[in-house]
Amino acid sequence: MIRNPILPGFNPDPSICRVGEDYYIATSTFEWYPGVQIHHSRDLVNWTLVRRPLERASQLDMRGNPDSCGIWAPCLSHADGLFWLVYTDVKRFDGNFKDAHNYIVTSPTIEGEWSDPVYINSSGFDPSLFHDDDGRRWFLNMQWNHRTESYGGAPKHPAFDGILLQEWDPKARALKGPVRNIFAGSPLGLVEGPHLFKRNGWYYLTTAEGGTGYEHAVTMARSRAIEGPYEMHPQTHLITSKDHPNAVLQRAGHGQYVETPAGEAYHTHLCGRPLPPHRRCTLGRETAIQKCIWEDDWLYLVQGGVVPDVDVPAPTGAESIEKPTRIERTFDKPSLPPEFQWLRTPHPERLFSLAERPGHLRLFGRESIGSWFEHSLVARRQEHHSFRTETVVEFEPDTYQQVAGLTHYYNRHKFHAVVVTLYEKLGRVVTIFSCAGDFPHGRMSFPAESGVSVPDGSIHLAMEIRDNDLQFFWRGGGSNDWVALGPMLDAGVISDEGGRGEHGSFTGAFAGIFAFDTSGRAKPADFGHFVYEVLK
């Protein structure tokens, strides 16, 4: 069986591509660098992160991109011996405008170096590239209409102004011919995330609708001609949980069709797993997949209805491989462990070094936590509702403007952190910084007040998250005993729904280490290891 979600934690907008017996899924990374996650599988059951292709300044620079902007909804495809990746870099979120720029990059292999981007257009986000069987290529994206009261956090239907189609000329590396608006969507509205495929002479268009919250859906339509008109699926929606609040997989929508070599049909989709009592998805939007069947040239879920299943029939012979419940990472290699990312900048050498002190990750204190430009934060996704992280830091601040620590982080308005810093009356201390969803101001609170004086030497920091509850710990001076610091905090606010609400942010919770130095002297902090452990 396939156990959903197949990509737990922040992995939204899954675009799936099969080449021979290899499957690849590309997901959105928003402001996290490098851009786009690509996972690989041979059986649709077991998945491994193999590449983040947008990795240099000539491909992607997101300094200044607001929270939840950056890379939206990549589409991965394969044709003529090349992998093709199209994506949006969104530069604005609030207000009427999005400033969404669309690009194409290519590579002969997933693992190899990808090309510099070719600019396509900026008429809307969620681009897709379709390779027709006559050799022509077609570019799709949703069209954004700024002439409505469509502000971030409260999307309005008229802003999502249909799906555009235009031919792409790979020789000229440009769009050509008329721009056609081929699909206005269903009455649910907010049409986006288009993907085309062809079967039995039909062009099938799947789109995402209903926004990224609990009304989300995969909508399906078909036409004999690529430019339409498109008729709606008999059920309108192929996959949705919008009318089923007790379904385990909520917020189901935005995915893509794939067939196995044997012709079995599957469709990916994003989903969320809310925690009671607030229905907050602390793991963000995750990737799931559903087994499908064809009836009368329409696609349906194999279990019937539209509600996605947690357990799904796998292709013949596929078996799940047990994943470790405790991962300890040391920093003795020339690159970061594969699950770690940083924010926005293509110049990570200004943020951290793995060479300056062998066996340690040295973070250089840059701008404040939550900066949109240079923020020294290295983090991994939260993949479980209950987990523990540990790290050890060597850090000697000489002013309260110098801070290093461990954080549960979503964005500048949603984070908790246990930190080492300086307090004039107490000397070096451990204390807590917290911003529990204070949008738009981002004001912090200090649940441990001035903190606790700590002995000289390295300081061990830890946090335990059990569903909606977070507790910080520390130890030092050679002691093996962990000491709880501060009160229990609300971990559930570190979620899409926390603070601003479900349509106001689209990423997910991370656990990571960080440093800042607002004096401008780039005070370094040396971290010795990072542990991520699943709690029962």
Automatic annotation (TrEMBL):
- Keyword annotations of the record: Glycosidase, Hydrolase
**InterPro entries found in the cross-reference section:** ConA-like_dom_sf, GH43_C2, Glyco_hydro_43, Glyco_hydro_beta-prop_sf, Glycosyl_Hydrlase_43
Beta-xylosidase C-terminal Concanavalin A-like domain boundaries: 330-533
What GO terms are given for molecular function? hydrolase activity
Superkingdom, natural source: Bacteria
Entry's family note: Belongs to the glycosyl hydrolase 43 family.
Q: What is this protein called?
A: Glycoside hydrolase family 43 protein
